[in-house]
Amino acid sequence: MRKIATEEAFTIPEIAEAIRTRVRQGGPNLDLLLLKQLYEPSSTTPAASESNQVSNRDRAAKDMLPRLLDLDKVRLENMDTNGVDMHILSLVMPGVQLFERAQATELASLANDRLSETIRRYPKRFAGLASFAPQDPNAAAKEMERAIKKLKLHGFIVNSHTANAYLDDAQFSPILEAAEALGAPLYIHPRAPSDGMAAPFQDYRLEGAVWGYGVETATHILRLIFGGIFDRFPKLQVVIGHMGEALPFWLGRLDFMGAPGARAGRKNQLKPSEYFGRNITITTSGVEDPLALRYCIDKIGVSNIMWAIDYPFQPTAPAVAFIKTAALSETERAKIAYGNAERIFKIKT
């Protein structure tokens, strides 16, 4: 069975170095906690009670960055060993969204050029999502057009909020207009909660994938729904990972509380559940739970779900075992494993 993994991260040396510089500058942004671990593994001597934990974390961090930078040897070996046909590559969180405007625009363009070159070398193994700099929405729209029409990429990646602003903000309209006009999906990937919602996540390291990522990105999607974005841009296609950031499990309550005309639904024309299917697709990245998958199939439809690994942050073998053994019909399995990805991202077989 063909397997296309739809949320697979990479980076380039120039962006890695720019993030390392940004990490050294410090600041309150919660993303810097994870980025420091990834780009500046601890050089201090931990307390005896923490030494094993810190040592293991540092080893994992030191292994992660080389995997993100590698687009040839280790990645392809991992794919071949596990029977993965294709990675849809996207620039690792937080992309270029921590940089000032000119630097972000330049690095996004460079990353897209490198991504396009990689796909040309391995057209059967890789597809790609273009990054852009939301800091300059008009320049972002131009880069999005270049990425689709010239570089032949397959969609876009944005790491949720930028400077604590979300895509329902009027300043970002050129980005949404471009995505809809180009007919290419926009993958909204998590990052740590924005500064205004950050405080409760700090004490127990809740800011990352354990909780904060899902809460933050689900909040972003609800802002788009209740802000009427999918009514202004009815053909806009958005993809979210991690089994829909838990939103499918809330749709009954969201429909009740956020139906058109309700207090939260004053700006949306449809029920929240109706935007799933028309405008929103989910992937399974990092959630290998057959009960959750079955629920999502029954709730939002099998045609709106794609398989993903979340490489290199999640191991490949369990993700492959999950899609191979989950209690699915063969038609359902084929759609989730590759068919929906080929259709949504316009990947030629």
UniProtKB/TrEMBL annotation:
Gene3D superfamilies: Metal-dependent hydrolases. It comes from the Bacteria. GO terms for biological process: secondary metabolic process. The keyword Repressor does not apply. One of its GO terms (molecular function) is carboxy-lyase activity. PANTHER family: 2-AMINO-3-CARBOXYLMUCONATE-6-SEMIALDEHYDE DECARBOXYLASE (PTHR21240), AMIDOHYDROLASE-RELATED DOMAIN-CONTAINING PROTEIN-RELATED (PTHR21240:SF30). This is Amidohydrolase. It comes from Hymenobacter sediminicola.
